[in-house]
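Researcher: First entry.
Model:
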Amino acid sequence: MKRDIDLARKILLTVEARPAGARPAVLVLDEYPPDEVADHIELLVEANLLEALDASSFSGRSWIVQRLTWEGHDFVEAARVESIWTRAKAYILDKGSVLTFEVLKQVLAALARERLSS
């Protein structure tokens, strides 16, 4: 499996959009295979952006998504605006850098600061 940063963002935005007090649930994104979503949820848990319970069984992998962590909320705030998200990814790739969460968070934060100062 190759990590898909756009899928990770979509998962985080989807979790954030759930109503307050929503019960933990298995996240389904129609445009992505369930195993790919499960793999990315696991990565987001490992990155401390999301809390979820592993509900995998012999019938397949799945995670019960509970909530965003504080870091997850910070990431979503920085990545929410599509134009900033696209600009951050393009900037990183133009510089020949690797598109990691840490680098992306730094660039998103810099673009947010730039937006505030203009």
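Researcher: Second entry.
Model:
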Amino acid sequence: MPLMMKKKEGVIIIGLQKEMIVVLEAVKNVYIKYGQEPVITSGLEGTHTFTSKHPFGYGLDFRTRYFKNKERPLVAGEIAKRLGLRYFVLLERNHLHIHFKI
């Protein structure tokens, strides 16, 4: 059964690398545990930093605004633990950034 997840309008995930499939599953499971529906806010589109993995299909951002302030680091930490050391998880001011360390 395919993974169903919402994405913000304009988000491009066509070209996402296979290493990011595990990210989608981990985010979905942790968000559901905390009673929230995951929303991808950035994929391959947009302007990113020079070192960004987004344009190459190795980076994704997820909405976090509906989590309580004390939940946000718990959610990020649990996702990071599930993904392991090959993935970088960063809780930013208004979203959760995850990329595969290539």
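Model: Note on the second entry: The mean pLDDT is 92.
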